[in-house]
Amino acid sequence: MDELNTSKLSAEIRQALSCVMAELVLTAQEDPLAIERIADLADGPPRDTRLLGRMLEILPTELDARPWLDWCEGGAAPAAGKPMFDPSHGQKRSARGAWKSAVRQRNAAAQDVATARENLALAEAKHELCEQAVKDADAHLRAAVCYRLLIDESRMLNGVFAMGPAFTLLRAISTYQRRDPVFETTLDDEGRAWIEEQIANREDTARMIMERLDFFAGDAKVELKLHHAIYKVLAEVYAEVEAGRAEAKKAGRPLTPIEKRTFRNHEQRRTSVRREGLRNDYSAVLNGFSIGPSNEPNDEPFDTDE
User: Fold this and answer.
1) How confident is the model at residue 227 (pLDDT cuts 50, 70, 90)?
2) 8 A C-beta contact, residue 206 and residue 288
3) CB 164 within 8 A of CB 277
4) Which residue has the higher pLDDT, 268 or 297?
5) Of 215, 229, 195, which is closest to residue 294 (Cα–Cα)?
6) Mean pLDDT of the chain, nearest integer
7) In terms of CB atoms within 10 Å, which end of the chain has fewer, N or C?
8) pLDDT at 92 over 90
9) Measured distance CA(37)–CA(47) in Å, rounded
10) What is the 3-state secondary structure (H, E, C) of the chain?
11) Could you report the per-residue pLDDT of 48-61, keeping only the tens digit for each?
12) Are 38 and 27 spatial neighbours (Cβ–Cβ below 8 Å)?
């Protein structure tokens, strides 16, 4: 062991070192194996080598000298480093228990992190469920609003047309025509071809009907002919319904939907549209009146209001 040189030390430091060495000697006497550990404290080269290696591991590979150069030229002094502190300060002095306490603290902190992560995962899952619930609620709200609008629109239609029979005429002259697969299957090829032709020309014929109806507004001759034509058609098709009822009773077959219908009373016809007439396509029927003008020139010679 190299001799410890204390000649350049102050009296206070030499006294403190003497006390330390005395304690070490007493410890060595009680525990002979401790002499080797005590020797490392005074043996310079091995400890210096290990200490230097640790310092080189801690120090950064590059140092920024600019703050020091600025300070030398009269600038602000470099920021002082953080002072070292004892992490076990204020706790019970126990060399053997200090690291155990640190381990417990670290494990407790790690457990807190794990618990926080679990809570975060649960919160994120709940957040996704809440977002989906909001989307479902939005969809339900839109559906409810649309349904409410349809109901209100249906009620307004009842007030607009006042008489249920008028809506049957509106359906007949609209550009929209509902397809009835059950009815069409009862037709032969010629009948189905006629229907396809009528639907293909529906827009042109509907436009012509609406233009002519407006043109002949208030004309008694046209009104009489239309009345007779409507009566003739309705009488003919109703006779077919009555014949069908008689045939069904004779053959013992069930009645068709149109054969099951009964006449509504006057108040019902006056204040509402028959449910079968509204169906779910009444909006399409009304939209069928939004067609543009025809390509024919306006041949009215003057304003009829004057």
Assistant:
1) very high
2) yes
3) yes
4) 268
5) 215
6) 76
7) C
8) no
9) 11
10) CCCCCCCCCCHHHHHHHHHHHHHHHHHHHHCCCHHHHHHHHHCHHHHHHHHHHHHHHHCCCCCCCHHHHHHHCCCCCCCCCCCCCCCCCCCCCCCCCHHHHHHHHHHHHHHHHHHHHHHHHHHHHHHHHHHHHHHHHHHHHHHHHHHHHHHHHHHHHHHHHCCHHHHHHHHHHCCCCCCCHHHHHCCCHHHHHHHHHHHHCHHHHHHHHHHHHHHCCCCHHHHHHHHHHHHHHHHHHHHHHHHHHHHHHHHCCCCCHHHHCCCCCHHHHHHCCCHHHHCCCHHHHHHCCCCCCCCCCCCCCCCCCC
11) 666 666 666 666 66
12) yes
What average pLDDT score do residues 186-203 get?
89
75 vs 63, 78, 80, 82, CA distance in Å?
Answer: 18, 9, 15, 21
Tokens of 169: 């005429």
Is this model's pTM higher than 0.90 or not?
no
How many whole angstroms from its chain centre is CA 256?
47
**Residue with tokens 């007493």, as numbered in its chain:** 26
